[in-house]
Design goal:
Helix content is 34%, strand content 12%. It is an alpha/beta fold. The strands form 2 sheets. Strands 1, 2, 5, 6, 7, 8, 9, 10, 11 and 12 form a 10-stranded mixed beta sheet that branches. 52% of the residues are buried.
Length: 428
């Protein structure tokens, strides 16, 4: 089975809309093509980019890491409500039983495979935000993912994603200030500020290129080809060459025991880049897993259980790997929507509305569940209601851990009046 086929198989229970979003990419050939074009990664915000040792901005500010759980992560699988008989009625086979859940506050628990998150919660380094989400709730992957990443609901047509606007607010021009894993630039990273996107360090370092026996001559030819160019393509190629040479010096060795999957590789690569002092200000981990579980959700054993184990194990290894840097890291999980409250006939869940978010890191005021809990009966047409706008979470993190003043928050999240939720401590 080739890689493209295995990807398709992994998501065969997802809806056609989500399969369109994640499918149709032969990842291996994609990387080969990009490699041939200049370095194995994508640079955005071409004009005025620099490649320096560190990004401009408050040196104390956290690295804000988003973990995108695309497909619609169900908050009641990850953070089940305890002692609610209605949940058992709605989900006769696909739920975490109270006896198996990791108890948080006697009202909510964690999926048993999220053991690392429970450790962080107990240490005061993880907060849960429940019944959170976007204000629109269209149940469309296309619409809700775009809305989630632009985060500019009252200004349709805003060209830049929210993470790019965050970098602009920091005033950084370094291409490594924003880094995303994956094979294409996420919407949240699009815009005038420089960002870098690639999958693996080994793919972008212009190391061993099999079709060229003389690596030095090949690099010289590339540099000559793209020198003194004024086009966006030529400038991008120049920066790609410089950046790839910088990345070539990074040793991807880790001190954490990462899971042997794509998520482990992505967290490990991010850790290596952070330890090298590249000056990353915000990063995006594209979580590899199927959350669009319309059939055979596998809450206790299978798809969702495996997703949660991979997340937990990756974060455990990442924290161990980066060591002291953890105190200046804030990780936030996001998803476009949750799932319906009621289990369907295929033992899965269709598109819903509210979900749960995790906020973790050294500056988090953790050990609590933050929610305006609506209950399971007061729902929206069978969906858990959104009672906390996810932008409240982002705004607080950027304000107090990113060091962004309130006026600039309004530029990043236009026409939005955010409310502090007490999730993080202010930078010292």
């Amino acid at each position: 089975m080739n890689e493209a086929s295995s990807i398709a198989s992994e998501f065969e229970t997802a809806c056609p809309e989500f399969q369109t979003l994640v499918g149709g990419i032969d990842r291996r050939n994609f990387m080969k093509t990009v490699m041939a074009l200049g370095g194995g990664f994508v640079l955005t915000g071409i004009e005025g980019l620099t490649v320096t040792a560190a990004a401009v901005g408050d040196a104390r500010s956290d690295v804000i890491i988003t973990v995108y759980m695309r497909g619609g992560m169900d908050g009641l699988m990850a953070v089940p409500v305890l002692g609610d008989a209605k949940l058992a009625t709605l989900r006769p086979t696909q739920r975490v039983k109270d006896s198996a859940a990791l108890n948080l506050d006697n009202h909510f628990g964690l999926h048993p495979n999220l053991s690392m998150l429970k450790e962080l919660y107990d240490a005061g380094e993880l907060a849960v935000v429940h019944s959170a989400g976007t204000p629109i709730g269209t149940r469309s992957h296309f619409d809700d993912q775009k809305a989630l990443e632009y985060a500019a609901y009252d200004r349709p047509g805003t060209p830049d994603g929210w993470q790019n606007r965050y970098l602009q607010a920091l005033g950084t021009t370094d291409v490594f200030a924003g880094y995303s894993t994956g094979f294409q630039t996420p919407v949240s990273f699009r815009g005038s500020a420089g960002t870098t996107v690639f999958e693996n360090l080994g793919d972008v370092a212009l190391g061993n290129i099999p079709m060229f026996s003389n690596r030095g001559a090949f690099l010289t030819a590339l540099k000559t080809l793209h020198s003194n160019g004024a086009s966006n393509w030529q400038v991008a190629a120049q920066h790609s060459l410089v950046a790839s040479e910088r990345l070539r010096t990074i040793t991807p060795e880790s001190t954490g025991s990462y899971p042997k999957d794509a998520n482990g590789n992505r967290f490990s690569g991010l850790a290596a880049m952070m330890k090298s002092g590249l000056g990353i200000k915000t990063a995006n981990i594209e979580f590899d897993g199927n959350f669009d579980v319309h059939a055979d959700a596998g809450v206790n054993e299978g798809t969702m259980a495996n997703n949660f184990k991979s997340l937990s194990d990756s974060i455990r290894a990442f924290k161990a790997d980066i060591g002291d840097l953890w105190k200046n890291v804030t990780i936030v999980t996001v998803t476009e929507f949750g799932r319906r409250l009621e289990e369907n006939a295929s033992r899965g869940f269709d598109h819903g509305w509210a979900s749960a978010m995790f906020v973790m890191g050294g500056g988090v005021k953790g050990g609590k569940v933050v929610t305006k809990w609506p209950g399971l009966s007061d729902n929206r047409d069978g969906d858990l209601k959104v009672t906390i706008d996810y932008r409240d979470v982002l705004a607080e993190i950027m304000r107090y851990r990113g060091g962004i003043d309130s006026a600039k928050i309004k530029d990043i999240l236009p026409d939005f009046k955010y409310q502090d939720l007490g999730l993080v401590r202010q930078l010292a």
